[in-house]
Structures are given as C-alpha cells and as structure tokens.
Design brief:
Blueprint (H helix, E strand, L loop, with lengths): L1 H15 L4 E9 L5 E7 L5 H7 L23 E4 L13 H10 L3 E2 L5 H5 L6 H14 L16 H7 L3 E2 L1
Parallel strand pairs: 1-3, 4-5
Antiparallel strand pairs: 1-2
Length: 167
C-alpha cells in the first residue's frame, strides 16, 4: 500500500524540480550593482547575462577586457576592470603633476598609469597590471608599505622601490 503511493509521489516531484536550476555568479568591478547574482540556468547563460543582472556596466567599464560571451558556470567570478583614463578625462591641474611624476624621482602609486609604474625598478608589465588591479579592487593605497600586498613585491623589491614611490 505505502509503496505504490510513495513511489508515485517521488516520481512526480523530481520531474518538476530539475526544470529550473539556478547558478550563482559573483560580478564585481565596474558594474552598477556588484553582487552575487542568481540566474536560472538555461544552459545558454553567458557572462553578459550576469553583468546585466548586476545592473549593467558603468561608464568607466573596460568591457573589451572581459569576454562577455563566455559561458557561465555555477560559482564563476566576473570582474569588469576600469578603462584606462585618457588625457582628456584628467583634470587640467593634474596633468602637470602626472608628467612631473614621470620625469621626477617619485611616482604616486595611487594615480600612476601602467607606463609610469613600469618606470619603477623591478616593475614590469605584469607587476604594473597587478598594482592597477589591486588599486581597482581595494581603492587607493594608504601607505607605500601597502604595495607589499601585491604578489611579487616582497621586502627586497620594496627596498628598491620605497625611495621612488609615494601615495
């Protein structure tokens, strides 16, 4: 008696539940509402779907740096970086400070672009990008010592850098 009734209930429940599966994706960086978004998994979800669920891109987003056509999987992380600031977007008074940082003896690690960071001893393109990424994710450096949180900048490299950097 119980076997027949229990079996029919078990058969009907699993048929309705698997139709709608959900995946969670962390969307961060230059989106309007950075968050973990939950999407119905249709099997055709792309990164652009998660970005749209997080409110879409901000005006500062470098959408070309991310493959928005990438297929999503549960637990993915999509980070939209900030686009590089052009000379037109820099305030008129700040251009002279930027050029003096390039030609002067110190570089402001909070405002320097990739080329300025690469002018530092022991900083190549990869390390410069790590500095830019760190700044984007964590905000401005509070002290020059904080640069040691960048992977690849240990005590020895910091000793070479500390006289040439400022915040």
């Amino acid at each position: 008696m119980t076997g027949c009734g229990g079996e029919s209930e078990k058969i009907s429940e699993p048929e309705s539940e698997p139709e709608v599966e959900e995946i969670s994706v962390y969307v961060s960086g230059q989106v309007k509402n950075p968050a973990v978004v939950t999407l119905e998994d249709t099997g055709k979800l792309r990164a652009v779907d998660a970005v749209n669920a997080a409110g879409g891109l901000t005006e500062f987003a470098d959408e070309g740096a991310v493959n928005l056509a990438e297929i999503l999987t549960d637990g993915s992380h999509i980070h939209i970086p900030t686009k590089k600031i052009s000379e037109q977007e820099i305030k008129p008074g700040s251009t002279s400070k930027k050029s003096s940082a390039t030609s002067g003896d110190t570089v402001n690690i909070n405002t320097a672009d990739e080329k300025e960071l690469e002018s530092l001893p022991g900083v190549g393109p990869a390390t410069a990008q790590k500095i830019l990424d760190y700044r984007e994710q964590n905000g401005a450096f509070k002290t020059i010592d904080e640069i040691k949180k960048i992977r690849g900048i240990g005590e020895k490299k910091f000793e070479k850098l500390k006289a040439r950097i400022r915040v």
